[in-house]
Amino acid sequence: MKQNVLTRYRVMAYVTAIWLLVFTVAIIAKYGFETGDTMLISQIHGVLFIVYVVFAFDLGSKAKWPFGKLLWVLAAGCIPFASFFVEPKVSREARALVTDPAPAPAKV
Description:
Layout: H1 3-33, H2 39-62, H3 67-76, H4 82-95
Helix pairs in contact: 1-2, 1-4, 2-3
Protein backbone atom coordinates (compact mmCIF):
# COMPACT_ATOMS: atom_id res chain seq x y z
CA MET A 1 0.00 0.00 0.00
CA LYS A 2 1.31 3.46 -0.84
CA GLN A 3 1.70 6.33 1.60
CA ASN A 4 -0.68 8.58 -0.36
CA VAL A 5 -3.61 6.22 0.35
CA LEU A 6 -3.09 6.72 4.08
CA THR A 7 -2.47 10.46 3.72
CA ARG A 8 -5.70 10.96 1.74
CA TYR A 9 -7.65 9.10 4.40
CA ARG A 10 -6.06 11.07 7.25
CA VAL A 11 -6.72 14.45 5.64
CA MET A 12 -10.34 13.61 4.86
CA ALA A 13 -10.90 12.15 8.34
CA TYR A 14 -9.90 15.44 9.95
CA VAL A 15 -11.66 17.67 7.40
CA THR A 16 -14.87 15.67 7.69
CA ALA A 17 -14.66 15.67 11.49
CA ILE A 18 -14.24 19.44 11.63
CA TRP A 19 -17.16 20.03 9.26
CA LEU A 20 -19.28 17.63 11.30
CA LEU A 21 -18.56 19.71 14.39
CA VAL A 22 -19.44 22.90 12.49
CA PHE A 23 -22.65 21.25 11.31
CA THR A 24 -23.48 20.12 14.86
CA VAL A 25 -23.02 23.65 16.21
CA ALA A 26 -25.20 25.00 13.36
CA ILE A 27 -27.95 22.49 14.17
CA ILE A 28 -27.85 23.44 17.85
CA ALA A 29 -27.99 27.14 16.93
CA LYS A 30 -30.85 26.59 14.50
CA TYR A 31 -33.10 24.46 16.68
CA GLY A 32 -31.94 25.49 20.14
CA PHE A 33 -31.77 29.22 19.61
CA GLU A 34 -33.78 29.59 16.39
CA THR A 35 -30.96 31.34 14.55
CA GLY A 36 -29.01 30.54 11.43
CA ASP A 37 -29.43 28.24 8.49
CA THR A 38 -27.82 24.84 8.01
CA MET A 39 -28.41 24.27 4.29
CA LEU A 40 -24.95 25.22 2.98
CA ILE A 41 -23.09 23.63 5.90
CA SER A 42 -25.02 20.37 5.54
CA GLN A 43 -24.33 20.21 1.82
CA ILE A 44 -20.61 20.83 2.28
CA HIS A 45 -20.42 18.17 4.98
CA GLY A 46 -22.38 15.75 2.79
CA VAL A 47 -19.98 16.10 -0.13
CA LEU A 48 -16.95 15.83 2.16
CA PHE A 49 -18.43 12.75 3.83
CA ILE A 50 -18.88 11.04 0.47
CA VAL A 51 -15.20 11.70 -0.34
CA TYR A 52 -14.28 10.41 3.14
CA VAL A 53 -16.24 7.20 2.55
CA VAL A 54 -14.46 6.63 -0.78
CA PHE A 55 -11.02 7.18 0.76
CA ALA A 56 -11.78 5.09 3.85
CA PHE A 57 -13.09 2.27 1.66
CA ASP A 58 -9.94 2.52 -0.50
CA LEU A 59 -7.71 2.31 2.58
CA GLY A 60 -9.77 -0.53 4.04
CA SER A 61 -9.66 -2.58 0.86
CA LYS A 62 -5.90 -2.12 0.47
CA ALA A 63 -5.30 -2.87 4.15
CA LYS A 64 -7.57 -5.96 3.88
CA TRP A 65 -9.77 -4.93 6.82
CA PRO A 66 -12.71 -7.12 7.82
CA PHE A 67 -16.10 -5.62 7.00
CA GLY A 68 -16.87 -4.84 10.65
CA LYS A 69 -13.75 -2.70 11.02
CA LEU A 70 -14.56 -0.85 7.82
CA LEU A 71 -18.05 -0.10 9.14
CA TRP A 72 -16.59 1.19 12.41
CA VAL A 73 -14.23 3.54 10.53
CA LEU A 74 -17.09 4.77 8.35
CA ALA A 75 -19.32 5.31 11.38
CA ALA A 76 -16.60 7.46 12.94
CA GLY A 77 -17.33 10.03 10.24
CA CYS A 78 -20.93 10.28 11.49
CA ILE A 79 -20.30 10.69 15.22
CA PRO A 80 -18.99 14.07 16.43
CA PHE A 81 -15.47 13.78 17.90
CA ALA A 82 -15.18 10.06 16.98
CA SER A 83 -12.82 10.65 14.05
CA PHE A 84 -10.35 12.38 16.35
CA PHE A 85 -10.02 9.11 18.31
CA VAL A 86 -10.38 6.54 15.51
CA GLU A 87 -8.04 8.18 12.96
CA PRO A 88 -4.83 7.96 15.04
CA LYS A 89 -5.48 4.30 15.82
CA VAL A 90 -6.20 3.47 12.19
CA SER A 91 -3.14 5.41 11.03
CA ARG A 92 -0.85 3.54 13.43
CA GLU A 93 -2.13 0.20 12.14
CA ALA A 94 -1.98 1.22 8.49
CA ARG A 95 1.51 2.74 8.73
CA ALA A 96 2.89 -0.77 9.21
CA LEU A 97 1.41 -1.74 5.84
CA VAL A 98 2.87 1.19 3.90
CA THR A 99 5.51 0.09 1.47
CA ASP A 100 8.17 2.72 0.97
CA PRO A 101 10.36 2.45 -2.09
CA ALA A 102 13.92 1.41 -1.37
CA PRO A 103 16.14 4.43 -0.79
CA ALA A 104 18.46 5.27 -3.62
CA PRO A 105 22.10 4.38 -3.03
CA ALA A 106 24.24 7.34 -2.01
CA LYS A 107 26.56 8.66 -4.70
CA VAL A 108 30.19 8.82 -3.77
